[in-house]
Structure formats: C-alpha cells, structure tokens
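Below is one such protein, fold included:
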Amino acid sequence: MNLESLLHRRKNSSLTASALVAILGATWLPQSVAEGLSLEEVVVTAQKRAESLQDVPIAVTAISGDKIADAGIQGLEDMSSYVPNLKITSATGQSAGFIVIRGVGSGNNSGFEQSVGMFIDGIYAGRSRQFMVPFLDLAAVEVLKGPQGTLFGKNTVAGAISIQSAKPTNTLEGNVRLSYETEYDSKEASAVVSGPLTDYLSGRLAVKHNDKSGTVENLIRGTEEPTSDSQAIRGSLLFDVSDNIQVLSKLEYANVYNEGSIFQLSGIDGIWASPLGEYIHVDEVSPIEDGKLDNKNTLDSPNKEFVETTSINGLIKVDWDLENFSLTSITGYSDYESEVLADADFSDILFIETNPAETFDQTSQEFRLTSQGGGDLDFIVGLYLETQHLELSQKNNVDAGQLIGENIVDPFSPINNFTQHSDTAAVYGQLTWQFTDTWSVTGGLRYAYEKKAALIELYTAEFDTYLVDHDLEAFANTLANRGTGVLDQERTTNNLSPTINFKWDYSDMAMAYFKVTRGYKSGGYNAAMASPDASSFEFDDEQVDGIELGTKMDLLDGAANLNVALFYNNFSDRQVSSFATDGFTVGNASESTSQGIEIDFKMIVNPALLFSFSVAYLESRYDDFADANCAPEQKLAYYNLGNPENQSDAVIDGCTVVAFEDNPSQYNNYIYTKDLTGKTTERAPRWSGSFVTNFNYPLGENMILLADLDVNYEDEYYMDQSLDSNTIQESYIKVNARLGLASRDQDWNIALVGKNLTDETTSGVSVGAPLFIGSYVATVDAPRTVAVEFGYRF
C-alpha cells in the first residue's frame, strides 16, 4: 500500500455521523460540512510503519512541528500542557527530571531510567539529560500512551515519546525565527536551510540559540535567576544510493549552561536534631526568607550555582526497499557530560554545597524487516543491541561550623562515586492478520536480555577535595548520617513482552480496538545511597500488564474526529524513590494500578477556524505498598511529641517507627514507615484537559490574522511519593495565546505569544529539605511571559 492510497479520505457516511447530523437537526450544519471541508490526515509511525492516526489501534497524540514552533513550545516540559495525562519536568540542578504518563513515572535517582521511553529519530534516550535540547527543527512529536514493550522494548511501561527531526529536502528551503520576551529579557534565534547538494544527495542544517534571564528573584544577591545560555546545531544528509536504497545520517551537538537556581525554600518550620544539638530552621536562615512559594529565594553559597550539560547524538539510518519488504538499519550513538554546582541547603547559611559530575555514552544498533503493508498478513521482525556506560561522581562540601561554631568542627566533603555498565540484546516480532473485511488481530512478542554491573564507593574527603581523610570520617558519618565503603554487584534480566490487539472496522469511518500487553522496566542500582548497604543497593525489574479498549471515529464527512480510550494497567514491583533527609531510599512497591479514560475531539468549523478538546480522568493508586517512607511532616510530628525514643509504639497518621539505628539520640536516624496501600500515587491528577483553537482569518488579499488560544487544566496532585500535604500542587488553569499577522502564503509572520497568562504559580518539584525535618524545597515554574516573534521562510 503506497502513501497516496493510505492517505485517501473515506467519503462514505457512517452511522455515527448520520446519527450526529440527525441530532443537530436539518436546520443547522457546520460550514465545514456544507463546504466539504475535512481535517488534514495525520500520519504517525507509532507501529514503526507509516499509518493514519485514525487507523492505529493504540492511544496516540501527535503534535506537528509547525504547532510546536507557533506555540513557542521550547522543550518537553512545555509540551506536556497540551497532552492530558502527561507530566514532564526538565532536569534542573539536583533534579534529574522525569516523564509521567497516566500517573506512572520514575523517581529522582540517577540509577533510574525513565518509565516513559524517549526515542529521538528512532534512537532510545532513557536518561533525561540526553534530551535537554530536543526541540530543534522538528517534523513531529508522537506520544504513545500505555505499555509499548513489544516494538519499543524496555523502559516503556507507561508509554513512549517519539521525536522526529525534519529531514533534508530535494528543493531549496529554509526559515529564520526570532523571539524576544519583554519582561525577563529572554532571546531566542533559530535558522534552518535545506536542499539538494547533488542529484543524489541533499542536506539540512539547523541551529538554535537561547539566552534567557531568570524568573526567580534572589533576595540575597539581588539577581534574577537562573539565567540560561544554550545552543544546538544539527547537520543531516540524505543520500539516494539507488532507486530503492536511501541513507540518512545525522550529527547533533548541544550545550546548555544555567547559572543560579530555580529552587527555593517552600517551608522553614523544620528541625535538625544533630549529635551536637537542636537547630530550628527558621532561626538559622535569613529573616527575609518567608518559606513561601513565591518566585523568590535566599540561596547563597561560596560558589555560584550552575548546571552545564554538553551532548552529542549521531545517527546512520539505511532504508532498503525490496519488492515486498523493506529492510532498515539504525545505528545510533549518544553521549553527554554534565556538571552541577548547587547550594544543597537552599539558603544563605553557607552550610552544604553539592557538586555532582556525570558522564554517559550509549551505542545502539537495530535491524528491522517490515512487510509493505495492506495485505492479509503484515509483519515486523527486528533485532536490537545496546551498550550503555554511566559514571557519576558527587562531592558534597559540608561546613557545619556555619551552624554550630567555627572552632568546634572542621568542614568535610562526603564523596559518592558510582559506575554502571549495561548490555542489552533483544529480538522482536509482530504479525497482523486481516481475517475478515472488518476484523484483524495483531500479535507480538519481544525477548530481551540485559546485564548490568555497578560499583559505588562512599568515603569522606578533605573539604572541597577528593583526598581521603580518615580522621574526619567517624564524625562526618555521625553528623551526616551516612556510611563509608564499597559495593560491587552484577545482575541479569531475561524478559518476554507479549501483546495482542483486536481491531474492528465497524463502519467505513470508525473502528474499535482491544489491546492486551505486557512491558517491563529493568532493575538497577541506587546511585544516591547514603550508606553502603548491600541489601538496599539493588532494585528489581518492574512489570506492567495493560488492557486498553478504544474507538476512533471520523465524523461529519471527515470534518471532525473523536477518539476514546479506556485503560487499565497493573504494575508489579513498581520502582520507587524517596528522599530521607540524607539521601535517597530506593526500592520496589509491591503493586499499583493506573486506570481511566481519555477523550480527544477535533473539528474544522470553517476554513478559518479549527479547534480541539481533550480530557482525561485518572485513578492511580498503590494496591500494596506497606513499607513506604513516612512524610517529613509525620517525622516532625513524632519529634514534637517529646523524646522520640519513647514514642516507638506511636502511630501518627499511619506512620510508625519500626527500627532504630546505632545512635538513638539522633531522631533523624530512626527508620519510619507507613502503609500507602489504597492511596494515590504521586503526580496523578484526577482530571486534566486542554482546549485549543487555531484561527487564521484573511485580511484583504495579502495578509492573514493569526489567533490561537490554548487553555490547559490540571487537578491537584502530590509531587512527592511520601504524600506529604506540603507537596500538593493545587489545581490550576493556564492560558496561552498567540496573536499575529502573516503574509497570505505565510512567507513571513509576526506575533505576540503569551504563556501562563493567568500567572499561575506552580511547581515541578517539591520535596523535604535536607537534614531539617519538616522543611521543604521546591522549584518554581515560569510566571506570565509575553514574547514578540518574527518568522521568515523561503
């Protein structure tokens, strides 16, 4: 089946459309129906072949490159506002960043890979810092919801995101985009040129530069933070070797440098009960610190905070079209280097400074044989090989003398060195049988083998060095509640990920599907542990069994479409991570469930107006999680009862002291657990939705009025796995808009682009503060911004 026949619109009236028209009444019809207008067909590659979005029997949201550029969507975090049941937080400082679909994502630990697989031009990118600048000259972004283990492999238990960059063209074209944000003096420039180099070779070059001022006021320094300077460049070549062999190569370089911090204290009522005394947080920080989430912080450290990440991504893709099949080879390489210097006490105390440095490289190779499609039997078979290597070194400078007196204790530097190497091999296949004119069934299976080896070394060094200092070690371990030593472990995984999907074309313009699938997320090792405990170093594989029932309908002779998906996903050994004042605890929750419904509606009303509406309802809960970490507010409540040593049998809101460590006088060292069975998971808003309109109205013969309005809603949700009430993100509505003018052929355009016009204060990360139990830190999302944009293309 060729692309032309694939995209051919089905013109016969369906029962659904006829019923809808009857309800509306014969006296009214949208102008789109009267004029024979229809929505532009959207082609996706969600099943590793080109198909109409309305024909693909899975839940997929596709966003075009033009929409990304016009709406000023600069990265993954911006895009999440347009896709219900999708939450994305970018890597910022100490936070590794994460992606959540349908209430399922990964915790903040460098040992974790994402629960949502990221694929950039077909290359797997499982670590957040691999895709810090992905939105450069894009063709489309596809969000696949639900487990995708058969075709996409490991670490897609919640879904997958496919980012596709624009390819070289055989005609000369290009564009330039400039943007200036007035309030915070932020500037962005990008340029693209593409075209033929010879009769058989074409090329494309894209560059982008961002220079942003900060949106958080540092009250100590009198500065706006964090400032950001980033640049990216991508070159790609498309070589027509012969009539049926095509080679695409790509090389991309990106650098992001942020100075200052987006974090702030969001609560300062905590207490640090150290071996040397009790310290009340509000008494130690600056009096101008109010502990409120208000786009203001009081960070001050000996060195200015920064985050710098440099990444390189390369690709060679060979497509060989045979008579009845196509053979594809994708060779990928990805690496990055990242360094962070952060004020880890998030205040002006000059107490704790952290300096993690991370390097990563990945090489992958995929071979895929695909039938041409359109027959009674269609198939895909493939082989995937991958090697990853991660090195993380974290130095924490601790100067406790800033709290307890310069002459009492010397400063010291706890060091964590972590190395992990993994090798993956997988084979997969998927077969679709069209056994009647209206029914088909797809079955697939993937076998994967993975081997991981990890080493962690914890020791105490002289202040601001990596030189071992055994004299300070005992005191440092007691004060910081940590241990020293080395762990070296190895693990292997063998996994089968099957899927079966029934599809029913119950009319010429509508279909339904029923999908049952299994996926997995590979286990690994805790890269941020405070003590070398062999029993808690490793965490297990996570498994999901998913069921999805959906329908996709074209209505009003193609002027509208309606897609509905009901889903139920059951997770076993779900990987969880929580911060416990001195480090991250990592483990596996026994079981959780994610279920709900998603509805997407899109319609072209007349030649000038198109709108879409999406809404999602989600229930995501732990079905069995008896030994979760208690919330900071619960631990503080224990302390406020009196001597916590005498409160071991007390339970405060389900939190129980279950064990004591070596130093019973230091309540921070107690182990607290609670049962989260039946409770909601973090980052799982009950309701979310978006309403998007695009209005392009002719002004005379030479210009077009551009007017877009996006309204996005999210219900409240917890941001921390402990379900601390101080980490709740309240429900909010954000409004984005674009108003501009363009030439009739849209060779040029100028527009005002407003984001968060309702000026909602929201947060991406909210957790308990280090050491001070009952205090909190959070990141602050951007306030209202208005930018002027100019674009020119040829």
Q: What stands out?
A: Residues 11 and 398 are 70 Å apart (CA to CA). The chain is about 10% helix and 55% strand.
